[in-house]
Amino acid sequence: MITIVAIGLIMTTFPPIRAFGISVLGSAGVVGALIGLSARTALGNAFAGIQVAFSDGLHVGDVVVIEGEWGRVEEVKLTNVVVRLWDDRVLILPTMYFTERPFQNWSRHEARVVGKVQIHVDHTADLEDLRTETQRLVESSPLWDRRRWVLQMVDATAASVVIEVQATAADGASAWDLRCDLREGLIGYIRDNHPQWLPRTRSEYKP
């Protein structure tokens, strides 16, 4: 580009070829614009990589949730980020994605994560009984990191109440499996021992 511009400027100093020099400069401007447009994305990703590095929002090994799927960050480069998803797929995203769109970082300060399970039950369900069974399931699971667990009623509707179980695990993969085990165990316990606690649709008869 510098050479073309220099040649064009030199040509404009000679009257016989001034018009040709001006056309060369015009061509150089068009080429420069095309190069600038093609480099815009690459430069944007490069600046985004610098921003991610200085903001300290993403590290190798972090557990993230992107577009509803969780994975672990394997590489953080200047222009792209490599994420290994839970099913071993590899997701390669431009660094600009993490500066322009929201994402969840489950392990920004530590690798341990909290697994959450929500279950709808009937209003007549005994929460203390469910807490006892949940404690048995959590404490017998090798996936629980022995740090914290809790069962709470987080919502109530006309048809049911919503209970939420939270239990900590060492990493995202363990938290996912622990959530599945707790959900399966609680549903099985209610179905086999207290089927009346399953959500029901009530109707009122008026003669």
Number of strands: 8
Strand content: 25-35%
Could you give the order of the helices and strands? HHEEEEHEEHEEH
Regarding quaternary structure, how should these chains be classified? Answer: single chain
Task: Explain how this protein is built.
This protein is of the alpha+beta class. It is 43% helix and 27% strand. The protein contains five helices and eight strands. It has helices at residues 2-12, 18-55, 97-100, 127-139, 172-193; strands at residues 63-66, 69-76, 80-85, 90-94, 104-105, 113-121, 144-156, 161-169. The strands form two sheets. A five-stranded antiparallel β-sheet has the order 4-3-2-1-5, with no helix packed on it. A three-stranded antiparallel β-sheet has the order 6-8-7, with helices on one face. α1 packs antiparallel against α2 (18-55) and α4 packs across α5. The radius of gyration is 30 Å and the shape is elongated. It starts with a helix and ends in a 14-residue tail after the last helix. The relative contact order is 0.11.
Can you give me a brief rundown of this structure?
The longest helix has 38 residues.
Task: Fill in the keyword field for this structure.
207 residues, 3-stranded antiparallel β-sheet, 43% helix, alpha+beta, 27% strand, 8 strands
